[in-house]
Structure formats: structure tokens, C-alpha cells
Amino acid sequence: MNRDVRAGLLTSAALALALAASLIINVGLPERAAFTGQLTVGQVPVAPEIGALAPPFTKMTVDGRTIDLSELHGSPVIINFWATWCAPCLTEMPELQAVYEKYRAKGLHLLAVNLGESPDTIQKWVQSLALTFEVVIDERQEVANQYYLRGQPSTYVVSPGGIITDIFFGPIDQSRLERTIAGLWD
């Protein structure tokens, strides 16, 4: 192999390693919070990652009420990020509604955080799908930024203690979500 080809291969390999390291540093790993999260009382990290406290937020719902995530401690919470223009979000909404209907009597809260759309747009969509869970307005995407949202739909499962137990990127189906939340009441 000639010298120029070898140099080109080595340069390409170095660039690929640098890109991979950059992705891991910027995107993170699911349990990175143990090392990088902000510490709170009791040394529990707060980060949008498995094993960390879910970042708190207070927002208005589409029906005009205020939701404060910290007030839901003691109950399991599903936080789903979505948008009306997102086809996979449309696909998973009936699945989320079915899980909510099945487990809300046990105390499950489902917060569907819309990504930057107007209340009127959101309300029409919610009514057309007959959704009964809490739909949160995040017009400036402040909550999405707190959770370092990578795409939609994204779903975070939060234990009654406020700890993120699972994260799903992409659409989630009812059976998988039910298996995930089954142990939250133990």
C-alpha cells in the first residue's frame, strides 16, 4: 500500500473516532447522569437520563390548567414529546390513550408535551383523537430543551420517586409500555 493511501486511511480513521467521541459526549449514554448530572440533596442526579431524577417543569395544559411535575411525585408518570405534524406520534397516540385509560385509576399520569405548536392547533388534534390525558403546551420548547430532546416521539417513564426508569426514542406500543410500567407499583 502506498504512502498516500495509508495516510488517507489513517486520517479517515482518526476523523471517524473523533466523530464517535463527539457524539457520545454531546448525545450521551442512557445512564450518564450518574457521572454528569447536577447533584441535589441526597446526591441524586437530575438529568434526562435513566437513573436520574426527571428534570422538573411547570407548564400550562391545553385546557388551561397548570401542571407541575414535582407535584406528581408519589405516582408513576409517562412524559411523551410529540407534534401534530409527526406521523409516528399520530400512530402512537391511541396506544398511549389505551395505557392511560387502563392505569389511570391506579394513579398513572400521562403528560403529552407538544413541541412548539399553538394551543388552537393542539386542541383540534386532541379533540379529533379524543385524548383524555394531560396535554402540555411547550410553545418555546423549554421542556424539550431541558430533556435534550433528540426527536419525536420520545417517551420518558418516571417512577413514583421521580426517577427516570426508561426512555423510548420513536413510537411506543401499548404492550411494551405496559411491560415497562408494570413494576412501578411494587
Topology:
Layout: H1 3-27, H2 33-36, E1 38-39, E2 45-46, E3 58-60, E4 66-68, E5 77-82, H3 87-103, E6 109-115, H4 119-129, E7 134-138, H5 142-146, E8 154-158, E9 164-169, H6 174-181
Describe what you observe in this structure.
This protein is of the alpha/beta class and 186 residues long. The chain has two domains: 1-30; 31-185, Glutaredoxin. The protein has six helices and nine strands, in the order ααβββββαβαβαββα. The chain has helices at 3-27, 33-36, 87-103, 119-129, 142-146, 174-181; strands at residues 38-39, 45-46, 58-60, 66-68, 77-82, 109-115, 134-138, 154-158, 164-169. The strands form three sheets. It has a five-stranded mixed beta sheet. Helix 4 links the parallel strand 6 and strand 7. It is elongated. The N and C termini lie far apart (62 Å). The relative contact order is 0.16.
Quick synopsis:
With 186 residues, the protein is of the alpha/beta class.
Strand content: 15-25%
Rg, Cα atoms, Å: 19 Å
- What structural class should be given to the helix and strand makeup? alpha/beta
CATH class of the largest domain: Alpha Beta
- Helix content estimate: 25-40%
* Gross morphology: elongated
- Fourth-level CATH superfamily of the largest domain: Glutaredoxin
Number of strands: 9
Order of helices and strands: HHEEEEEHEHEHEEH
Number of helices, where a helix is a run of at least 4 consecutive DSSP H or I residues: 6
Uncertain regions spanning at least 5 consecutive residues: none
What is the CATH fold-level name of the largest domain? Glutaredoxin
The separation of the N and C termini measures: 62 Å
User: Could you say what the CATH architecture of the largest domain is?
Assistant: 3-Layer(aba) Sandwich
Main β-sheet, spatial strand arrangement: 7-6-5-8-9
- How many domains? The number is 2
Mean pLDDT: 84
Largest sheet: 5 strands, mixed
